[in-house]
Amino acid sequence: TMDHSGMEQGSIDHSTMDHSKIGHDMGGHDSSTPMWQWFHTEINDVIAFSWWRVRDVKTLLLSCAVVFVAGAALEWLRMMRARNRERLKADRSYSGAALIEGTRRYGSLHGEDTVTYRTFEHQDPTRPRRSFFYGLSASFHIKDTILFAIQTTLSYTIMLVFMTFSVYLCTSLVAGTAFGYFVFGRKRI
């Protein structure tokens, strides 16, 4: 290790130094756009991306419309995933598959105190059991995974919109999700 004890800078007068040439760029933080930590009604926000800025009433109204549609789209995605799962259940239950009763045993490491549970599962007796990897590559699972990824991305983006704490944007978001649930949510009931 290097000994820095002889390099004291206490005698340097820092008040006479010109610091104006030193770059203090905060990497995309515009000092004219505050990071709100409370709900506000100001028209001055950056939403999720540096290029998505609200500077006037026109951009605020456009942003509110986009956020409203995004909220409704999130509910539509939830409905689509739920509907796809219901279709899969219906296909499995009406495909001639029988409800098979079985037992599974769970016990201690020493084989004592074994507990038996009754289990029921759909199984078509004419088809062999499919592997775990077959289920991963099933077209339904792939489609559902893609929809889940889109839903998650949209959910987190919407969360960032809400974190602007703009009363206008938050109200638009809640109205959009409520509208989406009103239109699409009834199909899940």
UniProtKB/TrEMBL annotation:
Location of the region described as Disordered in the Swiss-Prot/TrEMBL record: 1-20
Superkingdom: Eukaryota
Protein topology in the membrane: Multi-pass membrane protein
PANTHER family documented for this protein: COPPER TRANSPORT PROTEIN (PTHR12483:SF115), SOLUTE CARRIER FAMILY 31 COPPER TRANSPORTERS (PTHR12483)
Natural source organism: Pristionchus fissidentatus
Upper classification of the organism: Eukaryota, Metazoa, Ecdysozoa, Nematoda, Chromadorea
A cellular component term, taken from the record's GO annotations: membrane
UniProt name for this protein: Copper transport protein
Chain coiled-coil ranges: none
InterPro entries hit by this protein: Cop_transporter
Molecular-function annotations in GO: copper ion transmembrane transporter activity
Entry's family note: Belongs to the copper transporter (Ctr) (TC 1.A.56) family. SLC31A subfamily.
